[in-house]
Amino acid sequence: MEMTELLELVRRGEDSTLQFKASFHSLDQLVAEMAAMSNYRGGQILVGVDDAGELKGISADQQRQLNGWISSSSQQNISPSILPRTSSIPMAEGLVVLVIEIPPSDSKPHFDKNGMIWIKAGADKRKVGSREEFRRLFQESELVHADAVAVSTAQIEDLSQARLRAILLAKFGESQADKILGEAPFPQLLENLDMTRKGKPTIAGLLLIGDNPQRRIPAFAIKAIAWVGNDPTGMEYRDSENIEGTLGEMFKLAMAFVSRQLHKIQAGQGFNSVGQWEIPREALEELLVNALIHRDYFISDTIKLWVFEDRVEIISPGVLPNHLTVEKIRLGSSNMRNPILGSFGVYTLPYRGAGTGVRRALLACPGIQLLNDANLNVFKVTLPRLTPNRAQ
To answer: Which of 52, 83, 123, 155 could form a disulfide with 14, with the two C-beta atoms 3.0–4.6 Å apart?
Structure first.
């Protein structure tokens, strides 16, 4: 790394993947920082830069000590081990800034020598404090998936055989669907399809074929608000709805909610035309489906569907999984966070499962903005509205 690159990093400021440290005073302090970054998405630690972004530098003796700590801690004090890289940038008077690069990891969670798990919290770090956070780390290593988790308060009676038959009909056709339904008792079939686990409905089972799923999983719904103006902190709204049901039912209700708010515009058509939505319907469909299928179901929060006078926002709990970035999904990269919902979603939603939905939405509506917000732990999509007074 050159000095110009270092200065640009410092100018950017600290965040979840960039940490400033004037120095490290103990091996345990270093281990906690490296483990936390490994349990996130990797990143860089700049040693010799204080919290205010001022380049202080460290001495040659400090650098030798740190290199020894890094070598021993990455192999002996962090489990599974990590492979950090280091480089130094010379400064005046023999001082250097030491750059520690922590690569992204597929072996999460990483523990320190005391069995503690550290995670990033914005630019800071903290210990894992809940079962959901622990599960998310396993999810990122594809050791567990949220949609396969059983809901302890639910019963098989919460699942609908008629809804399951509709999915099987869509997938196999009538004769094969009835054959499958007749080959095994309903509880065994649900277990085989991962819609129950040890007799308890899974999150996927409830969201695909549940009767009133939010009775058992109330946070997994859509909170829809049509605001007056463009400020989400405002006190006035035109319409509000708590959208509940299965994935298919929530999708239809959410699309109906948005359709009530959007204007129809002529868009160059004849006078007798019915008009077009000011946001392309295809883009809205793709992004709503994406939110329902791919949101993080280890986070107990609703999807937000916010309609403003100049835009529509879809805010999903959880950032992009694993090593996905906004740039990658713009090019069609994908990662199946919820494989059960993904495999059956093609039969209940306008969903292909090919990983190209976001790209199709961008082609239909080029003004879409995508924000992967690690600090708020959400993924936000913003679709601009073309209201009649702004139409060309």
So the answer is: 123
Q: For residues 178 and 176, what is the distance between their CA atoms, to the nearest angstrom? A: 5
H or E segment and range at residue 100: strand 96-102
Structure tokens given for 304: 């937000």
| pLDDT at 390 exceeding the cut of 60 | no
Give the domain range for residue 158.
Answer: 148-212
Distances (CA, A) of 247 to 294, 362, 384: 12, 23, 25
Place of tokens 């700590």: 69
Q: Based on the domain organization, do 201 and 179 belong to the same domain?
A: yes
Q: How many domains does the chain have?
A: 3
Identify whether residues 309 and 371 lie together within a single domain.
Answer: yes
| pTM for the structure as a whole | 0.69
Q: Say whether both 339 and 294 belong to one domain.
A: yes
**Rg over CA atoms, the chain:** 25
Each residue of 103-139: pLDDT tens digit? 888 777 888 888 888 887 777 888 876 666 666 666 6
Could you tell me if 319 and 328 are in contact, meaning their C-beta atoms sit under 8 angstroms apart?
no
The sign one gets for the Cα dihedral 160, 296, 379, 361 is negative
